[in-house]
């Protein structure tokens, strides 16, 4: 069934524009509260945890959500600025009914969004999101005063999460002797991530830790790594760790200034586990995962499957296959034996553990894999264009695949929000990828 409000990662948009307005967000809290109260898993009065990133609009949306939940008779626990994966962890650890995160992740501060976690720390099932959307169509009322929800603040949320993150790092290892630059994107991990790495023994140089409500992701963090690259070189650090605004994405920079993306880090984590004698039956990537990763994993006896783009779909595929490792090139990395969702800090610790285990640098651990060059062309097409049934498009794709001869691939994706086709070709040879992508793009009728 088609969802009206929920996308692949909750509800997101520009603040002040529907649906990210106080009235709708209050009704969303009320609708979600009604669904939770009727859940067969509900025991006694439902309680939800609300966390947020550092956007100035978080105050407004937090208050609106709290009012909606209270009107539905649901108690609320507030933890203030907290990484998205921290809310997932705390919801599960505190045995709550659900967790809610107010964040627009890597987007600019003028955007915001709402996403939910189940009592188990998972993304909500489609059926629950659909039930919330159905409840949104009903008029908002209010329970009696005797049954209103209460709100309280969790004072030790940050400390709890710091300890959880540290627990995912091997007990027999530490980070003594490492100098790390940790870029928190002026986001939700600003008071979390530096402490995690410092308490494990590293010398930490923190950046992106002065949020003012408007500077989240602004020239810093995983989506703007150049500042981190420069800082790593300037301070002669061993490694740079870049998180995004809600700390569920990770990019790493080595001492030479080389940037490593999620595809490479996913491969590194899988291979480190294999080297340690662990069973790694398979890894899940997405349609955009670099083909070099797929081939390298398969060469080492590890199966590889692609999910649709979005960590939600990676997680679904992992559960379907009963595998543990998955991720995206953007830096969403999932280790299901460590956490229920993608977590930038936990993923960084898995990479650091691999480096300690092998006593090798990032570059050395990844010298056996060379990512294929990718060419991506976005083409705005005519409104009535049906590309799936276009004979010219099919012929162009077929010719490109013939030229690639198994040493590359073609991916055509339509945008979900605008009339744009994304033409991606990757190949061992960069020139071949570029020329074939351009040939395919040329046959698409422009708007």
Write the layout of secondary structure elements.
Elements: E1 11-14, H1 22-37, E2 47-52, H2 57-71, E3 75-81, H3 84-93, E4 98-102, E5 111-117, H4 126-136, E6 151-153, H5 157-167, E7 179-183, H6 193-199, E8 203-207, H7 226-235, E9 239-243, E10 250-254, E11 259-260, H8 262-275, E12 282-286, H9 291-299, E13 303-307, H10 311-321, E14 325-327, E15 333-335, H11 344-358, H12 362-365, E16 374-380, H13 391-404, E17 408-414, E18 420-427, H14 430-442
Parallel strand pairs: 2-3, 2-4, 3-6, 7-8, 7-9, 12-13, 12-14
Antiparallel strand pairs: 1-5, 4-5, 9-10, 10-11, 14-15, 16-18, 17-18
Q: Tally the helices.
A: 14
Q: List the strand order in the largest sheet.
A: 1-5-4-2-3-6
Overall morphology: globular
Give the CA-CA distance, first to last residue.
30 Å
Strand coverage percent: 15-25%
* Major β-sheet annotation: 6 strands, mixed
Q: What is the strand tally?
A: 18
Q: What value does the Rg take, in angstroms?
A: 23 Å
Q: Helix/strand/pairing class, anyone?
A: alpha/beta
Average predicted local confidence, pLDDT: 95
Binned, the helix content reads: 25-40%
- Low-confidence residue ranges: none
